[in-house]
Amino acid sequence: MTKLRYKVFLFGIFLLFGVSMAKANVNDAVLVMPFENRSQMAQYNWIRESFAILLADVLDVPGITLIGDDERTLAFRQLNLSRSDLLTRAAMIRVAEGAKANLALIGEYDIGGEKENLTVSIRAWLIETQAGRLVGNKVFNFSGPLADLQQMQGQLAWHVLYERNPSLPYTKEQFVRRATNVPPRAYESFVKGFQTQDQQLREAFLKRALQEHDSAGAPGHYGRALFELGLLLYRRADFDDAEKQLKELTKDDLDYEEGLFYLSLAAFKTGNYESASASGETLAGLVPLPEILNNAGATLVGKGDNARALSYLQRAAANSPNDAGYRFNYGYALWRNQNLEDAVQQLRAATQLNPRDGEAWYILSKALTAAGKAEEAAQADNEAKRHLSVYAKWAVEPEKIPVLVRVKEDLNGVALGRFLRRPQQAQPVGPSPQQISQQQSLDRVQQLISAGNDTEALNELQRILAGDTANAEAYYLRGVVYTRRNDLESALRALQAAVSWNPKLLEAHITLGRIFLARGDRTKAMAHCTQALGIDPLNRDAVALKQQIEIGK
Hints:
Blueprint: H1 3-17, H2 19-24, E1 28-32, E2 36-37, H3 47-58, E3 64-66, H4 69-78, H5 89-98, E4 103-114, E5 117-128, E6 133-134, E7 140-145, H6 149-164, H7 172-179, H8 184-195, H9 199-215, H10 223-235, H11 239-246, H12 256-269, H13 273-286, H14 290-303, H15 306-319, H16 324-336, H17 340-353, H18 358-370, H19 374-387, H20 391-396, H21 413-420, H22 423-426, H23 433-450, H24 454-467, H25 472-484, H26 488-501, H27 506-518, H28 522-535, H29 540-551
Parallel strand pairs: 1-3, 1-4, 2-4
Antiparallel strand pairs: 4-5, 5-6, 5-7
């Protein structure tokens, strides 16, 4: 039974058990809105965002996930709103829908009492965005000393989770302990630093949060403060200190993956390619987004490991074939690795995407010269003279040409958040409604392909990928359609994207192997055949492909 058929079989079994299984294992996405300060004391406005910050830490459990700050910011921007605005419930629901959340947590708080004995009262509501109704018809109320704010927020987090799935094995006390593991003064300083736009003030608050955490004798480290300070230092081009801060993060920290991204960049900027590539490869193994794959490959080129870099750069270019930087990096690494024919192909693509790219023209001319194509090399060299300001300098002192790989300095935080919340992270027992809908769409595509309706199949696949850009099976099916149409370039791009998102997609490796064998590229054909046999050594199609490659047919 092939992997795709096996998944369809499992899907049918899930449906046989009924909706109750899926309902008992919901995979909710919650957007926490800024709470409204009902008091007249602006000095406590910092509490507005503290709910989203703390719940992001506490609700890091299977079955429920919080929409990240990047996604929430994007949703506000799309509606031309600011997080400082006082919004109606309808507006809050629109923001949540824009962030692809099925639940919105909204609320308000009031500050009372004397200066030495301040109190806070909190009211919160959990709203189903699609229906616009109150979950459980409940209002969550908490009140007590302001010093107990984190404790109350921990209780709120538990109530949100319990309201959605009472069977999960967590106690209120566990959530309160998680919510209060940062000393109150350090927590307040961090929240203030996180919100301010003044960079000097932000740095001061974050450093104070770290100092207050250590002074209070709290165990471990304050991961969120470390990350935000490291990110601030990186953006200020203080790369050595940024690297020092970000290295402190561990796998248990909420910002670990994003920290690896900027740690790799900081090390790359200082020329520490060993550290840069180690961080880059670790992250690429966890989150294979195009910019992450590109940077992993780029740092390996900086290290001089061109052969290892190629696997990452190929996947980045396959995922985003219209990105001139990705195509340049892939072509550049191929040239350095003496894969001249493939290098020329990628570098030509880079110059077509950006005709003013002097570096791409320069390396293309070198690749063409090495490949013995003197006339084409001269044409590329002329273009390099036109567009490369340092051409004369490089011609006189070629030994001073720097490493030319290009790193991406901006991480798509929205895509990162959605990838980390993909269903396999929560490991639900049954499929979510989104998974059911997606599988039904994939089943429809397979029916359309079987019926020979390629056009409608491609349209349906485009709709699937618009909602889930990391859907490996959708890319694979797109590759199947293009292969049948004999559009092999499009098929290769789709199939390479499929195996980049799911390296264990056996059928995609076999199809890639067949295409490369038909083109006479036995090396690449065998590479994909070997990966297929590594997944299933007894697969008949993979074994037959290996025999065909070995006998040269």
